Amino acid sequence: MQQVLSNCEDKMGKSVASLNADYLSLRTGRASASIFDKVKVDYYGQETPLNQVASVSVPEARLVVIQPWDKSLLSVIEKAIQKSDLGLNPSNDGKLLRINFPPLTQDRRKELAKQAKGLAENARIAVRNVRRDGMEEIKKLQKAGTISEDEQKDGETKLQKMTDSHIAQINDIAAAKEKEIMEV
Q1: pLDDT tens digits, residue range 63-107?
Q2: Out of 8, 51, 62, 83, which could bridge 101 as a Cys pair, Cβ 3.0 to 4.6 Å?
Q3: What is the dihedral of CA 105, 35, 76, 102, to 10 degrees?
Q4: Which of 139, 168, 147 is nearest to 12 (CA)?
Q5: What is the mean pLDDT of residues 107-122?
Q6: Can you tell me the distance from the alpha carbon of 90 to that of 86, in angstroms, rounded to the nearest whole number?
Q7: Which contiguous run of DSSP H or E holds residue 38?
Q8: Cα distance between residue 132 and residue 17, in whole Å
Q9: Which residues have a Cβ under 8 Å from the Cβ of 68 and sit 6 or more positions away?
């Protein structure tokens, strides 16, 4: 039974980590290099992450500078950013790309907050699915005679506490992200 609980703990932790990763790529009013983590560039026929072909820096609160290590990639990187769903338009000066982050409108903030809530709900659903699968595993162990009824109840209680803990983490992360998005 300990193995079942351990597996559930790992899967729930991955759901929380996945939410954090999704939130990094969610654009807020401030410039952030992590927004470009999912942008892939065609580098000699290979889809390569942007941060492996260029340096991405944030010199100011609303500006990102991307400097490719190979100048011939400048236009390729520019097109990749424009194709991404980030809604950003880089300016190319022949040596590097500058990307200004315009202040978000109130409507766009509400839209992003709604998107953040949806991502958080998906993470909560994933955690609950892990709990359901774990409960089924524990019941199977009890029916097979591997564990007693008391151990089953104990395992289900531990699994529920684990679920509650991860859901609380998700709620805290979501509240912080929503606060960050709605800041003017």
Answers
A1: 889 999 888 888 888 888 888 877 778 888 888 899 887 777 888
A2: 62
A3: 20
A4: 168
A5: 90
A6: 11
A7: none
A8: 20
A9: 53, 54, 74, 77, 96
Q: What pLDDT is stored for residue 71 in this prediction?
A: 85
Mean pLDDT, the chain, whole residue set: 88
Question: How many Cα atoms occupy the beta-carbon half-sphere of 42 within 13 Å?
Answer: 7
SS3 assignment, position 120? helix
Mean pLDDT (whole number) for 155-173 = 95
The single-letter DSSP state of residue 45 is T
Burial of 133 (C-beta count, 10 Å sphere; 0-12/13-18/19+) = middle
Helices (H) then strands (E): counts for the chain: 4, 6
Q: Which helix (H) or strand (E) holds 80?
A: helix 74-83
